[in-house]
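Working notes for the structural subgroup meeting. M.R. asked for a predicted model of this chain before we commit to crystallization trials. I am recording the input and output together here so anyone reviewing the notebook later can reproduce the run.

Input as submitted:
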Amino acid sequence: MKKILVLICTLLIITSCVVKEEQTQTSTKLISKRDESKEYFYVKSNDEYDLMKIIAESGRTNDFDFINDATITFFSEGIPNFDTKRAMMNEKIVVNLDSYDAGQIEERLNKKFSDNQTTRARADFQIRGNDTFFPWSTQYLYSSNESKLTLSLTVYNFAGAFPGEGYTSLASYVFSKEDGKLLSNQEVLEKTGVDNNKLNDAIKKDFVENKYESGGQIYNRILVSTIEQVKQEDHENLYIRIKEENGIDITDNDLYVILETYSALHGDFTSPKVFQIPIKEVE
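Returned structure, recorded in token form:
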């Protein structure tokens, strides 16, 4: 009888271990790729419009000599590892995850690609037609990351005119590895155990310790959460917020927060910069 009880207990223990192992395997199962032979995120193609080539072929290099690497770099201030060549391209980006949210984001990026292509075709026509003004817009896959819990990509966009003003943006799309769900800023922080108050304090501390200088003037930087907190006639301070949507990216060790500066000219937050901080400092 004792032998039978021992045998039963042993079988129960083995069964329990198998169940736990199956549960662990299920909980760590990764979202499938639509194409297993490809990366999670990649550039499928570029459109045919190369700005510098169009200008050269039209014999208008002297007319637009102000468009160079320095011009493009101006729009990338505060964005590390920025590729000035790709930043002027229009990349068709694939989100190779088999989930509804991933499909929605890819559709959004495809629409931007198509809209950019129309703008760039018009620019080609205007430059070759001897116009002194033309629009331009871009899209490029700035980065992609993978952590234990997430898969993510960050996309850079530029829209503007030459000569004239330009509007830049960064957007980080972070997906859960488990089901491919697109995560909000708050959900990203919760997944990594980051304390939102500690993160805000860390950003404010950086603003105090590292003054921002532009055009020979030093500015105080003030972290805000809404546009209503901006004092419109204040020219001594810069008002900065964490990008409201798609504004945080992560790796296993670091947090990448997209900070946007209020522009009175645009009446909105623009000029994205990347604030990087180790996760362990804000847990």
